[in-house]
C-alpha cells in the first residue's frame, strides 16, 4: 500500500484504520473481531491506526494496543487524541455509557484542554496502548474551546513533540472553518477533518485544503461515507448522514453520483474513498472496521481503479467541484 508524506508530518499509508468500532461504537464488538479487524488491515498493508480515549472510554485504545503488541514498533503509526479526560466514575459504572458506545459508564468524559489535563490524558493513553510513545496526537473536537485549545492546548502538544514523545501534533474535528484557523494561527503538523471533505460535503475545499497545502500541513480525511449514505453502491431509503436520517435532497444527490459511478464501472463507496485522495494536501483516508471482513473491504475499495472521466462527468454535472485530480509523484512512496 502506498504512503504519503506531508512536509510537516510523518508518512501515512493512504488508508488508515479508525478504531472507534473497537470501542464498541453503537454496539458491541467482540475481542476476537477487534483483533481480526487490526490483523486484516495489517495484512492489507495498512500501517496507520487512529484511536482516542473517547472511543469506548478507553476500550478502543486497550484493544488497539493489544492487537499491535506483537508488531514491530517502528513499522506502524498510531494517533490518539486529547481534550476529553477520562475521570473514574464508580457511582455510574452500573449504567450504560451515554456517549454512543456500548460500554459501562465507569468513567465520565471531562473537557480539558489545559496543560495538566492534556498531559494526564496523554499518559493514560500511553498506558492503555502499552506504548512508550505515540506518533501523532490530535486535540479532539475543541469546537467550544477555541481560546484554550489554540493556546495552551497546542503549546502543550508542541512541548510533547519537542521532547520526542510524539512526532506530529494536530487537531481533529467535524468542521472545516475552525480547522482552517488552527492551520492559519498555530504550529500544527496535521489536521483530521471528519465528514467535511466527501463526495457530498465540499466545505473543506473552500479554505482548509488550500491553506493546508500552502502551509505544508497534512490532512487526514475521516468519515468519508458521511456515516452511511455513501457506504453502499446505492443509497438505501433509511440511510444516515452525519448519524441522522438523510434528507431526500442528499439521498437524491448520492443516487445521482451513484448513477455516474455505475456508468464508469465504479461503486459509490470506491469513489467516496478515492475522492479525498485527489487533493494534494490529503495524506490518508481513515475508515473504521468492526471485523476482518470490513477491513478487507476497505482495502479492496481503496485499490479500485477510478478513471479520470468519472471526475470529469461529476464536475460537468455540478455534483462535485472541479478540483485537483493529479496525484503528485513526490507525495507517493
Automatic annotation (TrEMBL):
SUPFAM superfamilies: NAD(P)-linked oxidoreductase. CDD domains: AKR_FDH. Transmembrane segments: none annotated. InterPro entries: AKR (IPR020471), FDH-like (IPR044477), NAD(P)_OxRdtase_dom_sf (IPR036812), NADP_OxRdtase_dom (IPR023210). It holds the Pfam family Aldo_ket_red. Residues 14-314 form the NADP-dependent oxidoreductase domain. This is Aldo/keto reductase. It comes from Streptomyces edwardsiae.
Amino acid at each position: 500500500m502506498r504512503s504519503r508524506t506531508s512536509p510537516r508530518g510523518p508518512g501515512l499509508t493512504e488508508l488508515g484504520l479508525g478504531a472507534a468500532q473497537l470501542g464498541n461504537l453503537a454496539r458491541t464488538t467482540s475481542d476476537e473481531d477487534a483483533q481480526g479487524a487490526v490483523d486484516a488491515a495489517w495484512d492489507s498493508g495498512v500501517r496507520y491506526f487512529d484511536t482516542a480515549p473517547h472511543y469506548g472510554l478507553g476500550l478502543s485504545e486497550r484493544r488497539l494496543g493489544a492487537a499491535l503488541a506483537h508488531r514491530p514498533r517502528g513499522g506502524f503509526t498510531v494517533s490518539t487524541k486529547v481534550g476529553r479526560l477520562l475521570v473514574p466514575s464508580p457511582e455510574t459504572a452500573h449504567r450504560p455509557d451515554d456517549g454512543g458506545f456500548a460500554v459501562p459508564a465507569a468513567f465520565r468524559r471531562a473537557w480539558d484542554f489545559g496543560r495538566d489535563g492534556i498531559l494526564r490524558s496523554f499518559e493514560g493513553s500511553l498506558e492503555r496502548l502499552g506504548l512508550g510513545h505515540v506518533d501523532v496526537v490530535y486535540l479532539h473536537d475543541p469546537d467550544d474551546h477555541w481560546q484554550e485549545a489554540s493556546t495552551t492546548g497546542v503549546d502543550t502538544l508542541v512541548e510533547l513533540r519537542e521532547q520526542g514523545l510524539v512526532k506530529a501534533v494536530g487537531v481533529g474535528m467535524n468542521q472545516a472553518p475552525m480547522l482552517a484557523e488552527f492551520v492559519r494561527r498555530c504550529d500544527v503538523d496535521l489536521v483530521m477533518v471528519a465528514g467535511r471533505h466527501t463526495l457530498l460535503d465540499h466545505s473543506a475545499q473552500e479554505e482548509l485544503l488550500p491553506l493546508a497545502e500552502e502551509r505544508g500541513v497534512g490532512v487526514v480525511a475521516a468519515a468519508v461515507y458521511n456515516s452511511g449514505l455513501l457506504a453502499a453502491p446505492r443509497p438505501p431509503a433509511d440511510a444516515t448522514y452525519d448519524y441522522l436520517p438523510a434528507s431526500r435532497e442528499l439521498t437524491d444527490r448520492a443516487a445521482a453520483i451513484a448513477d455516474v459511478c455505475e456508468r464508469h464501472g465504479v461503486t459509490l463507496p470506491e469513489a467516496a474513498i478515492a475522492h479525498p485522495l485527489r487533493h494534494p494536501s490529503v495524506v490518508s483516508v481513515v475508515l473504521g472496521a468492526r471485523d476482518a471482513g470490513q477491513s478487507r473491504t476497505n482495502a479492496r475499495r481503496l485499490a479500485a481503479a477510478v478513471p479520470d472521466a468519472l471526475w470529469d462527468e461529476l464536475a460537468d454535472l455540478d455534483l462535485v467541484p472541479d478540483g485537483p485530480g493529479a496525484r503528485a509523484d513526490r507525495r507517493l512512496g
